[in-house]
Every structure is written in C-alpha cells, then in structure tokens.
Amino acid sequence: MIIDEFEWQCESQRLEEVTKELIKQAYEVGDLKQALRTDTLETQRALWEDTGSVSIINGLDQIADFMQSIQLIKEQKAGHEFNKKLEEQYKRMLLSPYFGRIDFLEEGEALAEKCYIGIANLISDDYNFLIYDWRAPISSMFYDYEIGDASYTCPEGLISGKLTMKRQYKIENGKIEYMFDSNLKIDDEILQSLLGKSSDSKMKAIVTTIQREQNKVIRNDSYKNLIVQGPAGSGKTSIALHRIAYLLYKYRNKITSKNIVIFSPNNIFNEYISNVLPQLGEENMCQTTFKDYMHEALGNEFQKEGYCEMMEYIFNAKHESSYLIRIDNIRFKSSMQFVDVLKGFVAHLETVNKNFKDIIIRNQLVISANEIHELYSKDYIRLPLKKKLQKIQERLLFLLEPYEKKMVEEKIAELEESGDYVDSREIIERSKVIVKDEMSPITYEIDKMTRFNLVDSYKDFYKDLEIFLERANVKYDDKKITQIKNYTLENLRAGRLDYEDQIAILYLKNATGDRPKTSEIQYIIIDEAQDYTPLQYEIFHQLFGQAHKTILGDIDQSINPFMNVGDYRNITQIFEKDNTCVLNLTKSYRSTMEITQFARGILNNKVTEGYVKRRGEEPKVIGCLDKTSIRESILEDIKVCRNRGYKSIGIITKTIGEAEEVYDALKDSVNVKKIVSDEDEYVNDIVIISAYLAKGLEFDVVMIYNAGQEMYSGDEDRLLLYTACTRALHVLCIYYIGSLSPLLMSEY
Ligand SMILES: Nc1ncnc2c1ncn2[C@@H]1O[C@H](COP(=O)(O)OP(=O)(O)OP(=O)(O)O)[C@@H](O)[C@H]1O
C-alpha cells in the first residue's frame, strides 16, 4: 500500500526522535563504560600500591581487603564489558533502528499501540517502549499475523486484540529507504529483493523477514526436543541461530551462550555461520563437530579414520575387493538394530560374572571374593561399569594400606637390627621398596580384577556377535555377519579404527561411565541432522540427556548413502517420545524458482509450490568432450558470472580427490581456492569443493563438475547430487562428459 506524504513526514520525524534518543543513550553508556574502565584501573593501582605484597604475616585483614579488591575489579570489568557491548548495539541500531511496525489494539482498550520492532529494545526515560526487541512477546505478532484478529502470549497470559496496521521499513544509515504497509504476510517483495542479492561472505541474520512457519520453530517452548524437517534452503540453519538468540533473550537471567552448544557438520560450516549471533547482538554459542568431540574423547592410541577419509573411500573404492564388506559394515553399524545389539552388550557387561578372588596377605584374609562381589553387585550397583570397577579398586587399595604400613614398620625394624644401614632415611626407602615388591602380586591381581579395557571389550562383543544379535531379536544373514565380524576384528587387531567403529567405541566408553560432565549445557542444536546415525543420537542422549535439543535436517540431503539417520522416528525412539515433536518447514528460500524446480527433479519430485517465486535463468546443462573442454567452459562461465557481479562461485566436485585435480587444472588460469579438508577455511570467492563438504553452504553460482553417468549413476548418488545443486542461489551450470547422469534426466 502506498504511503502518503503526511505519513512519510510523521515517520521521518519519529525516526529523528528515536535517533536522538539512541545517540543520547549511546553517550550515557559510553560515559559509563569509560568511568568503569577508569575505576578498574584505579582499583588495580590502589591494590598494587596500598596493599603491596600480600602475606599472612600482615594479618588476615590484609587478605580480606585484597580479596575484596579483586572482587571489585571483577565486577568493574564485567560492567565495562557489558556497557561496551551495549555501546556496540547502539551503534548498530543507529544505522537501522527498526524494520517493522505493528499497531495493536488490545481488547478493552480504546487506542492501538504503535509497536516498532528492531534488533533490541529501546526504552525512554519515562518507560515508553520506543522500539521492541524482535524477540519480545508482543513482536511475535509481526511474524505471525496479518491485519485482523491477533494475539500473543506473555508472562501474564494470552493477550488478544486486533492488528490495525502492519508496516515494513528499510532503514539504512539512519535514513528510511522505503517503507510500505502490508496486509499480507511479511512481503515477498522485500524477501525477494533480499534473496536476489549476491551472497555475503558469511551467513546473515534474517530477522526482518522471518516467516510464520520459521517463527513457530524459533519460539517453540512446548517441547523439550524439537525435530525440524525442511527442504534445502528452507532456513533451518538460520532458524537454529535465531532460536539461540531468542532463548538467550527469553531466559537471559538463567542462561548465557556458554550453556548452548551447536553441533555443525564441519569447521568450514562453523566459520560460515559465526557472524549471525554477533549481528543480533549476542555472543556466539559453543560450536563443535561430532568428529572433533569424538577424536578428542578417544585419544591417540589408535589410528583413526577421518570423516573425509571414509567419504572418499565410499565414493572412490568401488573396485576394491573388500568394498562391499566395508559398505555392509557401515550399513550395519548405522542401523537401529545395531543400537539395540550394542545396548544388549552393555547390559551383559554389567552382569557378567567377574572373576573376583580373595585378597590374602601373609595368610591373612583382607577381603573375600564374596565380599568384593557384594561391593560390585550391591553397594556400587548404581554406578556404570567403569566407575564401579574404579571404586572397587580404590576400596581394595584402601584396605591394603594398614597391612602395608605394618609391613613397612616391621621391615624398618629388621633392617635397623641388621646393622647393614646407617642412614635412617635410606632404611625407610629401602623398606618401602621391599614391601612394594612383596605386595606386587596382590596389586597386580587387584588391577586385573578391576581393569576395563574398552577396545578389548569391543573385540569381545564381535567374538560373540551372533549371541547378542539373537538376544536383541535381530534377524541376520550369517554370511554377512561373519564377514563384518572378521573385518572388524582384523582392523582392531591391527590398531585401526574405522569411522563407524569409533562411534561404537565412544558409545561404549560413555555407557560404561567414562564421559565428561556436561551438566552446564542446557540447550543443544544439531544441524544437518540427517547425517547422524541412530547410534550417534544415542551418544547425544548419553551426553546431553538433560538438555533441550533442537534437531534440524533434511532427509533428502543425506550425503552419505549408507550412514545416516534413515528416519526421524529413529530419533523419537531414542529421546522421550512425549516430549519430542516433529515440525515441518515447507518453503525454500535460497534458490531461484528455476533452480529449485530443476533440483527437485533429481528427487523425481515435480513441484509447483513450496518455494519463493524468484525468477532466474534455467540451469545450464553442458555436454563436454573431455576434461579439457569442461575446464574451458568453466573458465568462460566464470568470466560471464563475474561480469554479472556474482561474487561467490562454487565449483562442486564429487570427491576431494577430484577437487584436487580440478584445482590443479584451473589454478594457473584463474584465482581459485580449494576446500579439501573439513578443517579448511570458508572463503567467499571462487572455490573448488567436494559436494559433501559443501553441505549447508551456498554460492551465487554453482558449477557442478562432471555430472556424467559415470560419476552420478544410481540411487546412491541421488541425494548427494541434489545437495550439490541446491547450494546455488542464482546460477546453476552443470558440465558432463559422455552421457549425462540419468538422475538429471527426469521431467521436472
Ligand atoms: N525468512 C527468510 N528471509 C530471508 N532469507 C531467508 C529466510 N529464510 C531463509 N533465508 C535464506 O535462505 C538461505 C538458506 O537458508 P539456510 O541455509 O538457513 O537454509 P537450510 O534449510 O539450512 O539450507 P540447507 O538445508 O540447504 O543447507 C539463506 O541465504 C538464508 O539467508
């Protein structure tokens, strides 16, 4: 709706007033920050000069003063940091104080309240809300309602009324660029103009255009665990980050960013998303990857296969004789049945008859085997296996102490009497060594009875695998299981741990009680959730059972055909069913309509809705004679795209091996970077990257390197190719040699 001149004047005047208030408050905060800094320096100086060196000789008062000053410095520093952040927020707000307005007429009131919505609250000295934070309860109506009946929930309960107006603004550098009233949802026009831009170097906040279905996820508080399924580009990662910002606002007195952890697919992605929360005025949460956590937990004892190594094997080693066995191995260990079988094994470990023995010293019974068994099966029954054995060991060593002490005393007396030693210290040391020697068979026995070796135990599991399969009622193919057993045992004996075995060993480690304390983590976010196996979800549950979980993924983007979640029902089986809810997102935002339709064709999914109708050019599918001609086409297309102003170009290969090859072929002709490890840095330029490392990222232009039939032939490659194509915002070029992949031939 067009806005008349009078309205423009009113809005411009209001913006001026708000800007003045922002400047005033920014100065106040700046002064306060400076004062706190001066105070801190002064306290530090006083502490140094007045207190001098702290010593107990100067009396307890001095120590008390010292501690008080330290506490004061801490508080002053925290105050300074807080005000520094506020000052930065004011600076950001001055550029664009708000982006939306709703006029809300509450039931029973005569006048509608004008609510301006921005990235943070601005409250005047007389307690008027000049701007509402987008996360405030009242602001939810901006995302949820059109003109007409509306309501929101706040601590006082449900507030109902009517939205009489909804306005959107684009304010840049403190000036209104445009504004318009929208009767409908957050207008497609603004959304399309945002989406039509060239991609930034990092993911950006979408606070001005959050959609209703996205808002539902961001603010959902009804369930402990949320599973969010959404197609490529539906904003899952964006939502996850905005949800974190929302939680930090809503529970600001209870949690900080340190209480939230996000599991990302890799460190490239971690870097890519690292700007969103700071843009929203919040500190980043803890970011990690499953692989990093797992490798740290398992230590360096074994030769561990990396995630990329496994992916390269899956795509490159089809000709190897053991390939099919390895694939069966991955499939089996990624199945829900494997979780049940492994759980059964853990339960068995608890009950297995431990070979406890009487502890006897010099014919004296210290503790009988039965008594040790009592400790194991009664006193420490509630502890997990490893902890239980540790406790027993501590207890036995404690019981030995008086015997040992007495034996040392006797030995000292004996040596003194012998007259062979003159130095009493030497006599003591010598006596201790002799007694230790005498005791060593007993301590060895204790160690043996209470030792728990994770990998040995994992080997035992395979030795009797059929028994555990039967106990868990799992039907199995004898031949396959024998092959899996032999394959795994051979690897373990050689000190090699395949990626899928690392997950299983980590599970065992946690299940037997050797796991880190994670009670401070109250929220966890798992992005790209489709690529975790049920066993990995068990591990998340083991580690963060107490935490609220937001799990976001797209089953159609399972980049590993053999190792994925399979079905979200597997997750609900693991977490508390009645506290877990699955929400679906239905719309894609990233790509043009043409690219989205083309990509959905790969899934044999003809769609006419479920995406923003942003128009672009049809994807180009270019047949090439050989690799040299692909190279030439790519170089030509890079030139064209650069001239059209596109910044980021992703040349997507199937594997890292292929990415290296393409990099070598292109590097002398154009300035390209390669991303060939999950530790590499994200760059917003021309990059060569394998499809499985590109998941979650996006590029203005995507060039799929060689989508010939040889590369993407069967169903197993379908989702990988789909994921690669859906990384494109504006342009998609597909090159191939020989015949085109049949996956790209569907009528979309
Ligand atoms: N409401 C929105 N307003 C503006 N842009 C949006 C909105 N939702 C999503 N986007 C944009 O769409 C793109 C895709 O978002 P995002 O990466 O969060 O989606 P995703 O579902 O995690 O994607 P994928 O599963 O394909 O990795 C991003 O550029 C994001 O900024």
TrEMBL record:
It catalyses: Couples ATP hydrolysis with the unwinding of duplex DNA by translocating in the 3'-5' direction; ATP + H2O = ADP + phosphate + H(+). Its EC number is 5.6.2.4. PROSITE patterns: UVRD_HELICASE_ATP_BIND. InterPro entries: DNA_helicase_UvrD-like_C, DNA_helicase_UvrD/REP, HelD_bacillota, P-loop_NTPase, UvrD-like_ATP-bd. GO terms for cellular component: cytosol. Pfam families: UvrD-helicase, UvrD_C. GO terms for biological process: recombinational repair. Keywords: ATP-binding, Helicase, Hydrolase, Isomerase, Nucleotide-binding. GO terms for molecular function: 3'-5' DNA helicase activity; ATP binding; DNA binding; hydrolase activity. NCBIfam families: HelD_BACSU. This is DNA 3'-5' helicase. It comes from Zhenhengia yiwuensis.
